[in-house]
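PROTOCOL LOG
Step 1. Enter all chains and additional molecules of the complex.
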Amino acid sequence: MNTNKSLDDYTVEIQECVKCGNCQAHCPVYNVTHREGGVARGKIALAASLLAGEIKLDKRLREDISLCLMCGSCVNKCPNKVPTHEIVGAIRREITESRGLSLIGRAVSTVIGHPKLLKTLAKSGAVLSPVLLAKVPSASGLRLRFHSPVMQKRTLPQVTFTNLFERYPEFIQGDPEKPVVGIFSGCSTTYLYPDTGAAMIEILKHFGYSIYFPQSQVCCGIPALSTGNGKLVEKLAATNISSFAKHSVDYILTCCASCNGGIGEHYRSMKGDTGNFTDKVMDIHVFLKKQGIFDLIEKMSIWENQTRVTYHDPCHLKTQGITKEPRELLNVLPNVDYVEMEGADLCCGLGGTFSVYNYDYSKQIGARKIDGLKECGASQIATACPGCIMQLQDSINHAELPITAIHILELLEEALKDRLT
Amino acid sequence: MIEDRIVQILGEIVGSTNISREKADKITHSYDATQQSYLPDVVVYVKNTEQVAKIITLANKEKIPIVPRGAGSGFTGGTLPIMGGIVLVLTRMNRIIDIDTDNLTAIVEPGVVTGQFQKAVEKLGLFYPPDPASLAFSTLGGNVAECAGGPRCVKYGVTKDYVLGLTMVTPTGDIIHTGGRTMKNVVGYDLTKLFVGSEGTLGIATEITLKLIPKPEAKKTMLVYFETIDGAAQAVSNIIKNKIIPTTLEFLDAATIDCVRKGSGLDIPQSCHAILIIEVDGDADILDKQTQKILTIVQPSGVIDTRIAHTHEESEAIWAIRRNVSPSLRKINPDKFNEDIVVPRSKVPDMIRAIEKISREFDVPIINFGHAGDGNIHVNIMVDLKQDGMKETAHKALDKLFTAVIEMNGSISGEHGIGTAKSPYLNMEVDECTVSYMQTIKRIFDPNNIMNPGKIFSRDS
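Step 2. Run joint prediction.
Step 3. Record the structure below.
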């Protein structure tokens, strides 16, 4: 089985931090706390002290280590590319090993570690995503709130009752000349935003790809990684890798940036060879571009009533350098008047389970998007990650703006609606 | 060690969540970009001038060292708590209090990040020129304390040229106000200039009044590849000789280019041994003419190729290369002695040759880049201190370097300050009598030597 790296495995990388402070400019957490413990440089200093035995996993250290969205923004801009998000993951696993999982961490792990429970909870409208939620109608009656006492004001989308697995079979035959694509849908898309998943499948069907959608797939592992449950990450990785080994596929596509980071980037960082799986992992927008679909879309006649749409960079795409493809798609969509917003690349503030532990900071980080969003005049903010959509919509709701957060694929589906059956 | 009763009083001043003696906090406030580390006894985060004054009054009474800290990105140890004590963090004092578009001034708190301030004034068509490579994260307070420079200073001057006034808390806890909001002001001694660049040894600035200028309408960035470093240095001299002062005139030597070649995304020719980044700004219609004139002047100095940025993104891509130079040097050797010498502009070619000679003599890689336009060269002696005798070798090389600088009528630091890193060399440049006047000033302001002690003046000077 592929295993996670330990803190010791990062000794060399930790030494490569030259303490320049560059990460301060890019860390979403530091930009609201303005405290050194929040930023990568501080965490790397703590990691070095841990390795040197100068400090133990004491309370303040655990707090500092919890203040990380694992977004990778710092890594991206670090002159020496010190992988702080991975190092934080390793320290969190050490914390879990020495102290056990936190209460929230246990709830998260219980849910995502048991696909059946996840399904049941989603169906009953009780939860989704990392934490146990209850369906409590808000003032408008349309929204859900987290039941957890730490995040009473969180607004959530309404849970749908037919999940993505119930809507599609495991295999859909397409044009035999075209590649076979595997779909890794992820928890949020499967249970919370199945319409996005359906849009992805319908679009792929329309363009003639054969689709393999294994129902044995499980959570990508990002929330478990975020809470430091290394064992669970390893278990989930093994299950996912074997799920996609049952059928020959040319690609494994995601429409969730976090899942892409999970089954792509993180599995790649694990010990052991995952190449057979991770090399096939591709973001749906990158795939559509490579397949020449953007050129086809560009030829469609432009709509009279275009919607003004802006774009939010999900961290897990941005840090992999995937910033152009989603924008190019928005630019060629006939139904979209695309406009760039200031701060498009600022993190939304969700960060796996970060927002569960640190909802106030999470909200403050999310609020940093609002000025740019207002200024650009868009009525929709499109992105490529259901987690970001949930968080962006929450920030927008708190700012009381008439703006909707949606997935780009829904706009593509809208553009193609006359052609999709 | 600081007694509990003092920690309790500090907690009453700043609130219990803004003070810490936790090991983790001591560790994360122990270092700066020199990569050295000294644990403080206590860390406090302050929010306003009154808190700073109360803390300093207490520290002065109890004779506890105080070390002010902004982004902690200095290169000379200015924020290292080398004698322990209180690290006083100013990052949460980060309000832009006022931008006066009628009088072109601004008032800021010290924790405002320089780059964010620049963005805010540029939105209003104004301009704050000092641009240290760390501008995206370093704070204005730190910039004032070190008198930060940057590439644009060749045309626009350094931080001290933009500070009109300060609210300072002195080492005895008094709150004083220097200068004001006017361009002209000759009332009394110019204490503002004394404080700017004083490296936190004479007090802590809690409010800074800055001068702004109108934002230039447009700019043009050029990247010029040279066959030799000598050619590039010659080109710099020729540009200045022709009475042109570009906004920036930055150079990178061959070893620097090797460090950034891979990550730059640019196809830098192998035959290229030096790069000049030249930027001009002003009215859009004169820029093309100016660009052509500069390219004509530099052409005879062995130019391989030229790139002109046509968009803001292309220009930023060029600058990203320059800003990433310093942190990427680690690829050569793990330890660096990072100097920022400055010589009269015409001496740049001589200085480069002298550095090459030192590099050969001591057999250590020396990497040079920086602000050729004002003679300010970042000299990085790259060594592995784990090797026997390497520390001594590096210090010998530094001695030689500084001797050469002073022989050419230069200075051992243009913009990084002295801190702890360069204090042993202060006496090489500044004569004994002058140092003694400086120390007298320090004693008058700080009779108990609590304000950032051990900085600028080495313990034996």
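Step 4. Note key features.
Chain B has 16 helices and 18 strands.
Chain B touches chain A through 36 residues (CB under 8 Å).
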